[in-house]
Amino acid sequence: MDLSPRHLQLREMLFRRWKTNGAKVGDRIESQNEIIKFCDFSLITVIKTLKDLEAEGVIRRQVGKGSFLVKTPWTEAHHRIGFFYNRDIVGGGIFNNEFYTKLVVAFEKGVVSDGHEFILGSFTDHKMPVEMWDRLDVVVLTGLTPHTRLDDLARTSSQVAVIDMTLEGLPYNTYRIDFAPAFTVMFDRFGSEKRRYLYLDSSIASSEQVARLEAFRQACAAAPVEQELKVISVNQETGAEDTKALRDAIEQFEPDFVCGYMHQSWHTQILKWVHKPTKLYPFGLDVDRAGFVVTSEEWMRQVLAAIYDNLEDRQAPARVYNFPADFRP
Question: Which residues is 249 bridged to in the sheet?
């Protein structure tokens, strides 16, 4: 079918609108007059485009009732799913970061095993590749911070899912790790005697960084015996070589436990700085050592199952999905 550029533009705009709204087969679409209200196309172009869509079998027009979708060309059983990370946080690239490397490998494995197409990319705090995202079914984002401009998200027709951050009041599904149960298990185990806990809080601000600290404070306060807690800020991502504040805190506070955000290179250094038996409990993904641990394949299996369900019903309200971490003593 030979369509003019104007008809192609309107067709693309309608498909994008229906995709964004999660329109399904059998749904009523907008009338000619309703379409004219939200676009700059003439009535003649709208009528011609709708007639072409009817001839292709995309819509069915019923006199006195309106027009209804017969098929949705923008949806397929085969999905294109993108995983995008914040380059401003990861720095030199995602495979230079242990956490994100394990996360993306587990996610890709799940997507490909399910017979779908996986796309890996990045964005920055100030720029998101929205035009590329429009060609995907789902965009999974990780590494968002309070400095990230989120207005671009509203411009994509792709379904947006956010890993490891909660965006309050925005219509995007969030998949986060819940550390509160693991913290409670630790303090139930060791909280019968007064001990010193040094919590390493990330200087990279995010809703999850705040939530983890608050959950740790609450678990500490709920311990059977009052505990001594000290919190310091660290940059475990791009400031791993700057350990002066960490060393000073350890030598002055003399903790029994060091918990929280920890660069891998700090483990051996901390054990050199302490002068008594001290346990290290960092956040970990797919690790055998002690700490607050998550198995990436199990987490991503849960994430993908929810993503597929949400693709079936894009009009469902956004949810926050919690995956519990384990405490390994």
Answer: none
Q: Are residues 27 and 166 in the same domain?
A: no
d(CA 135, CA 246): 45
Q: Specify the CATH number for the domain of residue 252.
A: 3.40.50.2300
* C-alpha to C-alpha distance for 231 and 258, rounded to whole angstroms: 10
- Domain holding 40: CATH number? 1.10.10.10
Kindly report the three-state secondary structure assignment for every residue of 79-126. CEEEEEEEHHHHCCCHHHCHHHHHHHHHHHHHHHHCCCEEEEEEECCC
Q: Please check whether residue 65 lies inside any domain of the structure.
A: yes
**Domain span including residue 320:** 80-176+296-328
- Give residue-wise pLDDT tens across range 9-39: 888 788 878 877 777 788 898 898 898 888 8
Same domain, 309 and 168: yes
The verdict on 171 and 187 lying in the same domain is no
Cα separations (Å) of 35 from 32, 38, 61, 64, 195? 5, 6, 15, 17, 67
**pLDDT tens per residue, range 212-264:** 999 999 999 999 999 999 999 999 877 788 999 999 999 999 999 999 999 98
- Pick left, alpha or beta for residue 69 (phi over 0 → left; psi -120 to 50 → alpha; otherwise beta): beta
Measured CA to CA, the distance from residue 232 to residue 43 in angstroms comes to 64
87 and 46 assigned to the same domain? no
Do 165 and 309 reside in the same domain of the chain?
Answer: yes
